[in-house]
Design a protein that fits this description.
This protein is an alpha/beta fold and 549 residues long. 34% of the residues lie in helices and 19% in strands. It has 3 domains: 123 residues, 2-Layer Sandwich (Nucleotidyltransferase, domain 5), CATH 3.30.420.40; 153 residues, 2-Layer Sandwich (Nucleotidyltransferase, domain 5); 193 residues, Carbamoyltransferase, C-terminal domain (DHBP synthase, Alpha-Beta Complex). A hairpin with an 8-residue loop joins strand 6 and strand 7.
Length: 549
């Protein structure tokens, strides 16, 4: 059975895309933003994602058995007294004809998230957390996943939104909506001095039930604007809001770092209570996470250290980018189809060596074919050069994981400043390390395989001098475990760097210009590398020198 999962709509749509599941196996998954060059692809139907899947997999919509949409739009519209378009109309809008109406299936948003987290996790049983802004109405939900029974059982749900709480804090600090990662990074520079005040507004009981000082009734397609406005008013009583960029951590910024630290602390406390109570009650040791808040790697790192938790799996596309996959999985399980695949995150399009060579010839670039591609890249990095890498299939999810990455030497803090400046990032924001998994415990406190860069780990004190560019101010790092099985080519690059330097770690940051999606084509790769004034671009066995310095 072929199931096409999709996400993205003309109203309240973001992070759209498409995924193809065939006989319970993931064949292809892509986010629309990568194909249209517009971050988050707001309010767009994923036409290009659908087209690419059909083209790359050599299929047509006729070959698809189910078209699973990761929102229950009819029920959502019904909640505020309106009526959504018919399936025939939906088919025409998405696919240009009414004839595929019978193939359309709507999936509740949090069910899609939960499926995207549990079924690819490799766990037979797990506690499943879905934490985001909101779905149709629900914002936080907890499930018990049982692979043997092919079932997700809902344990708890609430419309109280941890996502909107954290978003409000983000905006109050002066960042924009969608920049919650900056709030998480800023938190490490502060202390949770406002946590007591925040706990009076939002907290969890020992049984994991979340309590909030206010509630918002269902009135429209979403309650984001109203909820954040209420939070902003409440936060104003704690500390006045600020506007503008935070270029440096100065004395006037510390109170806002304290607010970030306080929000992070309260968020973690709530999640800890949910996990501890339910893991003990249902006798499960593994946790699977999805929803945009699931990308808070600091919180996931704290959860991974709980004594009741053995392993944590966070869907690499935990945000709504993973909804297309989750919808397809939900449809498969509803049809009693066994879903069985490992969540290797390289699921998008790729360009072969011949296509890359033709692009380089057409552009008359200064390139050569590497005799030993990984070794040449490693050598350049060890000499202090910054190398952008474009190889293999595009990553699924917001993290670059070695195929569309910018790589550099992690040993000196000077590289943090240099790379952040070239990327147009604030200099205080951390960069992430990619480490050979077989050496992970020599450098980091966590022994968990973390290939998606979704869990923070403490950097072992004795090696911090060798990891100056990737050790955050609080002594942690958002690690990527690199294995031969998941990404043999990236593993080879780090392995060669290890031979040269004795350090089995490289800096890995996303290959994109500020404000743009991660690159998806050779032209985008070249344009972005030149715009950022990087030293070298490495594409499918070819090394391109970008300037003569």
């Amino acid at each position: 059975m072929k199931i096409l999962g999709i996400n993205g709509w003309i109203e309240r749509g973001h992070d759209g895309g498409a995924a193809l599941l065939e006989d319970g196996k993931l064949k292809f998954a892509i986010e629309e933003e990568r194909l249209i060059g517009i971050r988050h692809a707001y309010d767009r139907i994923p036409y290009e994602s659908i087209r690419m899947i059909c083209e790359k997999e050599k299929i047509s919509i006729e070959d698809i058995n189910i078209i699973a949409i990761g929102w229950d739009y009819p029920n959502l519209w019904k909640m505020f007294g309106a009526k959504f378009i018919s399936k025939k109309e939906m088919s025409k809008v998405i696919l240009g004809t009414e004839k595929y109406a019978d193939k359309i299936m709507y999936v509740e948003h949090h069910i899609a998230h939960a499926c995207s987290a549990f079924y690819p996790s490799g766990f037979e049983k797990a506690l499943v957390l879905v934490i985001d802004g909101q779905g149709e109405y629900i914002a936080t939900s907890v499930f018990l996943g049982d692979k043997k029974k092919n079932k997700l059982t809902k344990l708890y749900e609430t419309s109280i939104s941890l996502g909107y709480f954290y978003a409000a804090v983000t905006e109050h600090i002066g960042f924009f909506s969608g920049q919650e990662g900056k709030t998480m990074g800023l938190a490490s520079y502060g202390k949770p001095v406002y946590a007591k005040q925040l706990r009076k507004l939002i907290s969890a009981e020992d049984n994991g039930v979340i309590k909030c000082a206010f509630s918002v009734a269902k009135k429209g397609k979403d309650e984001e604007e109203e909820t954040i406005a209420i939070w902003r008013n409440l936060l104003e009583d704690i500390i006045p809001s600020r506007e503008g960029k935070i270029e440096e951590i100065t004395s006037d910024i510390i109170p806002y770092a304290n607010l970030a630290a306080s929000a992070q602390k309260v968020l973690e406390e709530i999640l800890i209570k949910i996990v501890e109570y339910n893991c003990k009650k249902y006798n499960v040791q593994n946790v699977a996470i999805a929803g945009g808040v699931g990308l808070n790697c600091a919180a996931s790192g704290i959860l991974s250290e709980l004594t009741c938790v053995d392993k944590i799996f966070t869907q690499p596309a935990a945000n709504d980018g993973g909804i297309s996959l989750g919808a397809a999985i939900a449809a498969a399980t509803q049809k009693n189809e066994k879903v069985d695949f490992e969540m290797i995150p390289y699921q998008g399009n790729e360009f072969n060596e011949e296509e890359v060579l033709q692009f380089l010839r057409d552009g008359n670039y200064n390139y050569h074919k590497a005799e030993n591609f990984p070794k040449e890249i490693a050598q350049l990095i060890s000499e202090g050069k910054i190398v952008a890498v474009f190889q293999g299939r595009l990553e699924f999810g917001p993290r670059a994981l070695g195929n569309r990455s910018i790589l550099a030497d992690p040993r000196s803090a000077e590289m943090l400043l240099k790379l952040n400046t070239l990327k147009g990032r604030e200099v205080w924001r951390p960069l992430a390390p990619a480490i050979l998994f077989e050496h992970q415990t020599e450098y980091f406190s966590s022994n968990q395989f973390s290939p998606y860069m979704t869990i923070n780990s403490r950097v072992i004190e004795e090696v911090r001098n060798n990891l100056g560019a990737v050790t955050h101010v609080d002594g942690t790092a958002r690690i990527q475990s690199v294995s031969k099985r998941y990404n043999p080519s990236f593993h080879l690059i780090i392995e060669e760097f290890y031979k040269i330097t004795g350090v089995p770690v490289v800096i890995n940051t996303s290959f994109n210009v500020k404000g743009e999606p991660i690159v998806a084509t050779p032209k985008e790769a070249m344009d972005s590398a030149m715009a950022m004034n990087l030293d070298y671009l490495a594409m499918e066995n070819y090394i391109i020198k970008l300037h003569n310095n």
